[in-house]
Design goal:
Homodimer. The protein contains 15 helices and 19 strands. The protein is an alpha/beta fold and 459 residues long. It has a six-stranded parallel beta sheet, sandwiched between helices. The protein has a six-stranded parallel beta sheet with strand order 14-17-16-15-18-19. Helix 3 runs parallel beside helix 4.
Length: 459
Amino acid sequence: MVSILVVGDLMIDHYLWGDCDRISPEAPVQVVDIKQEDKRLGGAGNVIANLKSLGARVGVLSVVGDDNRADQILDLLSEVDYKFLVKENGRKTSQKSRLMAVSQQIVRFDKESKENITQDSEDKLLSKFSEILPQFDGVLLSDYAKGVLTPRICKEIIKQSKDKFVLVDPKGKDYSKYSGATLLTPNRKEAAIATSIDIKDDVSLKDAIVKLKNDLNLKYSLITLSEKGIAFYDKSLEIIPAIAREVYDVTGAGDTVLATLGYALASKMSIKNATILANKAAAVVVSKVGSATVTLSEIAEYDKFTSCWDPLKKIKTVDEILEILSANNKQVIFTNGCFDILHAGHVSYLAKAKAIGGVLVLGLNSDASVKRLKGNTRPINSQISRATVLAGLQSVDYVVIFDEDTPYELIKKIKPDVLVKGADYANKEVVGSDIAKRVELIEFKDGFSTTNIIKRIKE
């Protein structure tokens, strides 16, 4: 399990829900009849909630006031694995209260302190940070400009975390306190203000993203582009486009991006694949109403939705599938074959394999491998043609092409939970059975085979 430490501004999101059907006789204002009241963790709490929903172990460090709202935050953090809150005398714990009438926000009123935390609070927070840092894979700084992430706090955390990643959701015009971080996640408007570059096309986008990387000595540079996706810069500019079915609510999407990037990098994904995963997570969140969290299963369902238009997205290299599976918490099912001419028997077999429950990875023999196994007249269809047709099946999650005569080396790397073969392998040794947790044999649909189809065509 990946383990991530969140440091930032915690607050309470307070909602008062009610109905409104009259105007006050005292003043020209609406009268709201309160029906429900609830409190949720806000600010950096949205990042924490996303990490928990992704399946990470989470720690949190913050500074709050010495008041009853601080106690409420501790209660809301009950499911967090590790928490350390410095209570500062005279400070107000942030609470944003929203009056909602018929799902519309009427007014918001805040109670909070926005000045920087005291030096004593900084000392306590940094002392605890140094003590617990070895327990975590990386650090996320969630800055809501409420005074916790002072220049000293940011610089010390980045300095002490030189062997780990530090990702920052920045605030303000001056990003110098984040210098040396792994990456920042500003949106287009924030990046334009911070760099004084009017971002209006790909040229100005590249200028801004490179300036952030160079000026702040970042390992990677990233700018979120709302409905257009996410741009990142490693050695060159790449834009990962977003595909959202419908956009209902963009609230919390930035927190989702930060949390998902942290989860992906802790899972040893490359920066490109981490950005792709974060982009998908954001697309899921904005298509939901009233929820700013995402799960890996929701991302997988979104992946299937987008793959309907482009089956090639389901065809992966060995390295790509290992990265994907490392961030997956579902059972992994593996099967393999040549699948030269896809027929009803194959479709039935793969549907039954998927019905076992989990992620179905199909190992596909390459053209050279098929030729060695079946003879010089095979395959009829090329490996990319066969892979594309298989990827178009709803039952198949991913296709990986391998060049050996057997998939043993691929199975060694994937380490599937379930290895699936046809029932004709009963009482026979199944390649990879010594690696998988169990083997499932599935009956083939009678009367179907590629060899017989080819024979009938010739006749």
